[in-house]
Design goal:
The chain is of the alpha/beta class and 497 residues long. Helix content is 26%, strand content 23%. Strand 4 (129-135), helix 7 (144-154) and strand 5 (155-169) form a beta-alpha-beta unit. Helix 7 crosses helix 10 (196-205).
């Protein structure tokens, strides 16, 4: 019996009204052209760039499982970039399945493996892959939680799953519209769509850590075949009110833990007590600059993004020993000299943040309930979290402590003590810290907010106009940043110029 995907795309290719769509889907009978066009596409280039920014650049030692590989264009492109790739698909189709992919297996000398598999179980050993790649696949799966449990199983600790261009609906009318108007669903009978919350809850219930969620306008990954337009904002309210249509989202999630090959013993003390740049820290955290006399307790529980810089005499402390990521520091973050960052729960410092010297950030305190016991043996408070969102500046000697979030784009003045949430795009100062300025998107200025009424006015303006979400702000910063690495001299390291 003819493969339904082959029938669908053959019918589309021979239908003048759908021929262009089949071409844009890379499903034409010209397999070589399909592969070359996808490899050269902005969409693919951006996806690989994003994988690199999340610590998985192309290397032969980095293993990729492409689930739903179809005619193999992405398996070819990933292998040509330098990854070690296995493509997996349930279709043996000659136009859109495994048999089509076999026709480009050695194209341009590029080699990748292909596996035919049916059913929901991924027939691979536990902890086999660094990356799972899925393009326009996840929305076809009915049991999201069950499938992502399998994905979690076959990923290595610290591995990534990227699900690109998946269909999101906001109401049942949109579901009916999507399924009834899809040009090929009347043949394949396998299209699907889910609410955004269904995707995110399925990832979370299986223990995945979110890295990036791209809205329909955040990246060319989702806008293709239309061009990416910077500074556009996704209007979720308008999307939810539509009675038809759908939206494309992309998801980047990480399996907790540290890859086995990166688990190395703590560094031996260097002579005279100085830490060498060639220490275990350098090996464990690639593309991160380290100052001298840095101490890290709990390396297996910490992730640090590429391009970051950790100053002299900094102390990172994870109070709980397990396989969970408990401290996450983003990309291009500057941690100033003599900083202390400590967690007994979960602590995150977002991309592009700047911590001045002698900043203290912690989600835990020593327990002192029993006056008859030494404080040192009463433990620490657990289960709290501190999140410092993207592009925040924490001034010299400032303290951030408790169970709180400092919103993106905010500034903490020197010597301030922050113990409560700070809204995005705010300036706080004092002990305890109070909000003294907020960014008003209506006037596009930082306005003084000495009273609760003045703060409420700015918040009301934000409700009317809107401010970027975390994902939107990250993408805005990524496109605006002209650097990918904090200058190493900022770390100290006894360098003079």
């Amino acid at each position: 019996m003819e493969d339904p995907y082959d029938r669908a795309y053959d019918w589309g290719w021979n239908n003048p009204e759908l021929r262009r769509l089949v071409y844009l889907c890379y499903k034409t009978p010209d397999f070589v052209d399909n592969a070359h066009r996808f490899f050269a596409s902005e969409e693919f280039g951006e996806a690989v760039r994003m994988l690199g920014s999340l610590g998985k650049p192309p290397r032969k030692t980095t293993t990729v499982l492409e689930i739903g590989c179809g005619n193999g264009v992405a398996s070819y492109a990933l292998a040509r970039k330098g990854y070690s790739v296995i493509g997996l698909d349930s279709s043996n189709g000659k136009l859109a399945g495994i048999e089509a992919a076999r026709k480009i297996q050695n194209l341009d000398g590029v080699q990748f493996e292909l596996v035919h598999a049916a059913g929901d179980k991924i027939e691979c050993d536990d902890g086999s892959f660094d990356i799972i790649w899925m393009r326009e696949v996840l929305h076809h799966i009915k049991d999201l939680k069950g499938f992502l449990s399998e994905a979690m199983r076959v990923l290595k600790p610290g591995g990534l799953i990227c699900c690109l261009r998946d269909t999101v609906i906001w109401n049942e009318n949109q579901r009916q519209s999507f399924l009834s108007t899809h040009p090929f669903n009347h043949i394949t009978q396998d299209e699907g769509c889910h609410y955004l919350q269904e995707y995110t809850e399925a990832f979370a219930s299986n223990g995945f850590i979110v890295e990036k969620i791209l809205t329909p306008v955040d990246s060319v990954i989702n806008t293709y075949p239309a061009p990416f337009v910077p500074d556009r904002k996704f209007d979720e309210q308008a999307a939810s009110s539509r009675q038809g249509g759908y939206d494309l989202f992309s998801f980047f999630y990480r399996k907790p833990g540290i890859p086995q090959e990166q688990r190395i013993p703590a560094p031996e003390p260097a002579e005279s007590g100085a830490s060498s740049p060639e220490s275990a820290l350098t090996l464990r955290f690639g593309n991160v600059t380290w100052g001298c006399h840095v101490q890290v307790i709990g390396m297996e529980n910490i992730l640090i993004g590429p391009g970051s810089c950790i100053g002299d005499n900094t102390w990172f402390n994870v109070c709980i020993r397990d396989r969970q990521i408990r401290m996450k520091i983003g990309r291009c973050v500057l941690i100033g000299r003599q900083a202390v960052v400590s967690t007994a729960g979960f602590l995150e410092i977002g991309d592009y943040c700047v911590l001045a010297p002698r900043v203290y950030v912690a989600d835990s305190d020593h327990v002192f309930k029993d006056i008859n016991q030494p404080v040192m043996q009463q433990g620490v408070t657990q289960g709290r979290s501190v999140v410092v969102e993207e592009n925040c500046w924490l001034g010299i000697n400032s303290v951030v402590s408790g169970n709180l979030t400092i919103g993106r784009g905010s500034v903490v003045a020197a010597n301030a003590v922050v113990t409560k949430d700070v809204p995005p795009f705010s300036v706080v100062m004092g002990s305890p810290a109070i909000i003294v300025k907020m960014y008003n998107p209506l006037t596009k200025t930082w306005e003084k907010t000495p009273t609760p009424e003045s703060r409420q006015q700015v918040l009301s303006a934000r409700d009317r106009v809107g401010i970027p979400s975390r994902d939107e702000y990250r993408n805005l910063l990524d496109h605006a940043a002209v650097f990918k690495q904090i200058e190493p001299i900022v770390a100290g390291r006894n360098v003079n110029i």
